[in-house]
Amino acid sequence: MSFDKVEHELHHRRSGRNIGVLVALIGVVGIVFGLTVVKVLELGDAAKFEKFDHVARPQIIPETDQ
């Protein structure tokens, strides 16, 4: 007895759509990752990461001797 698996044409269409969704998802993740890398490289100094949270934190303000 031979059981040949016959795929319906609906499966072929769905696999094409799934591949399209995968490509779109990878593209969005790539864009977000790329923007993150550019932003981190643009900041340069690690101390700037703490200053960029829009919250006043006295512990990171340098003290001036008077």
Would you kindly provide a brief summary of this structure?
The protein is 61% helix and 0% strand. The chain is built from two helices and no strands.
Helical segment count:
2
The unreliable regions are none
Helix content: 55-70%
Taken from the alpha-carbon principal axes, the silhouette is rod-shaped
From the N-terminal CA to the C-terminal CA, the straight-line distance is: 95 Å
Largest sheet: none
Please identify the structural class as seen in this structure.
mainly alpha
Beta-strand content bin: under 5%
Order of helix and strand elements from N to C terminus? HH
Mean pLDDT: 78
Describe the structure.
It is a single chain. This protein is an all-alpha fold. The chain has a domain at 32-57. Helices cover 61% and strands 0% of the residues. The model has no long low-confidence stretch (mean pLDDT 78).
